[in-house]
Amino acid sequence: MPGYGQPGYGGVPAGYGQPGYGAPAGYGQPGQGGPPAGYGQPGAPPQGLEMGHGPYPSIGSGGGVNPQVQQWFRAVDKDQSGFITAAELKAALVNAQGQTFSETACNLMLGMFDKDRTGHINVEEFEKLYTYINQWLAVFKTYDTDQSGNIEEKELTNALAQMGFRFTPDFISFLVKRSDPKEGKVSVDSFIVLCVQIQRFTEAFRARDTQQNGTVTIGFEDFLNVALSCSI
C-alpha cells in the first residue's frame, strides 16, 4: 500500500539511533541524573569511590568527562581495566523485567562508539554511549504509555508512526513477534535494536530510491550487500 514505510514519508527523525546525536527536543535531559529507575539502570557506584585515581582520566575544573558518568564507568568496569567490554555492559544494564540487556543490543551499542575497533570502549566513548542510552530510554518511556516496561503492538505502531513510518498491521505484528516470539512484547533493549535496524535499512533504501517514489529496483548482489550490511 502506498506510503507504508517509505522513506519519502518522513523516516526516522534526525538523531534517532545515531551516536552523538540527541533525541528529539523534549525527550529527557541526557547527562542529568542516571537512567530512569528500572530502565537499564546500572548498579550504584561503589561506596567510598574516590574520583581521579586509577587508569581513568581525572576530572579537572576546565571540563572533561562528567563526574557522574565517570562513577557509572567505574561501576561497570568490573575488572578495573580502564575499558568496558560488551560483556561488562551486558552485566550492568537491566530492563524493566529484571533481565539483562541482550547480547545483540550490547554488541550493537558498544560497536557504535568503539571508534578504534578494539572491542572495548574507554571513558570518553562511554560518556557518549551513556548519553545515547539515556536518550533511548526517554523515547521508550514516552511510547510505553501504560508504563508496563514493554512496548506492545499498538504502542509500537504509534512510535513508528511518529518516526514517519506507516507500516501495515501485519508488518508491525511481524516486528513484535520477531522481538519476542513467546509473549509478543518489545523490551527496551529490543526496541533500540529494532529502531536502529529499521533506520539502517531505511538509509540503504533511500540511497537507491532515486525517484523518491517508495520503490527500488535492486540486483541480487546489491540486495545481499544491503541485507548483510544492515542486519544486526
Automatic annotation (TrEMBL):
<dbReference type="GO" id="GO:0005737">
    <property type="term" value="C:cytoplasm"/>
</dbReference>
<keyword id="KW-0677">Repeat</keyword>
<feature type="domain" description="EF-hand">
    <location>
        <begin position="64"/>
        <end position="99"/>
    </location>
</feature>
<keyword id="KW-0479">Metal-binding</keyword>
<dbReference type="Pfam" id="PF13202">
    <property type="entry name" value="EF-hand_5"/>
</dbReference>
<dbReference type="InterPro" id="IPR011992">
    <property type="entry name" value="EF-hand-dom_pair"/>
</dbReference>
<dbReference type="GO" id="GO:0048306">
    <property type="term" value="F:calcium-dependent protein binding"/>
</dbReference>
<keyword id="KW-0106">Calcium</keyword>
<keyword id="KW-0963">Cytoplasm</keyword>
<dbReference type="InterPro" id="IPR002048">
    <property type="entry name" value="EF_hand_dom"/>
</dbReference>
<feature type="region of interest" description="Disordered">
    <location>
        <begin position="23"/>
        <end position="63"/>
    </location>
</feature>
<feature type="domain" description="EF-hand">
    <location>
        <begin position="131"/>
        <end position="166"/>
    </location>
</feature>
<dbReference type="InterPro" id="IPR051426">
    <property type="entry name" value="Peflin/Sorcin_CaBP"/>
</dbReference>
<dbReference type="Pfam" id="PF13499">
    <property type="entry name" value="EF-hand_7"/>
</dbReference>
<feature type="compositionally biased region" description="Gly residues">
    <location>
        <begin position="23"/>
        <end position="41"/>
    </location>
</feature>
<dbReference type="InterPro" id="IPR018247">
    <property type="entry name" value="EF_Hand_1_Ca_BS"/>
</dbReference>
<protein>
    <submittedName>
        <fullName>Peflin isoform X3</fullName>
    </submittedName>
</protein>
<dbReference type="GO" id="GO:0005509">
    <property type="term" value="F:calcium ion binding"/>
</dbReference>
